[in-house]
Amino acid sequence: MPILTEGDIARIDGAASVEEAETLVAFLEGAAGRRVDLAAASHLHTAVLQVLMAYRPPATALPGDPDLNALLAPVLAGDDPTMTDAA
Q1: Could you tell me the residue ranges of all domains in the chain?
Q2: Hey, how many other C-beta atoms are within 10 angstroms of the C-beta on 59?
């Protein structure tokens, strides 16, 4: 499963398919302050992308893939200008 949850962080590893969208919603709605780690994300189904754009969880790391990074950095990095590249 490409979405691994550990504490208050959901790590998306590899390609996240449409089935992971519901998992991500349940995780993000489970408690306040939940974050995502996208460093290892290589592909996001549009449903997963829509969840991220709707909930706008803080990112602990952005994708290394330049296209995903360009799409998600403005949405998930908030006001932190240093969050433009994967950690």
Answers
A1: 3-66
A2: 24
Specify whether the CB–CB gap between 66 and 84 falls below 8 A.
no
Ranges assigned E (strand) in 1-87? 3-6, 9-12, 14-16, 35-37, 41-44, 59-61
Residue whose structure tokens are 């349940």: 26
pLDDT by residue for the chain (87 residues), tens digit each? Answer: 689 999 999 999 999 999 999 999 999 999 999 999 999 999 999 999 999 999 999 999 999 999 999 989 998 876 554 554 444
- Residue 75, Cβ density class (10 Å: 0-12 exposed, 13-18 middle, ≥19 buried): middle
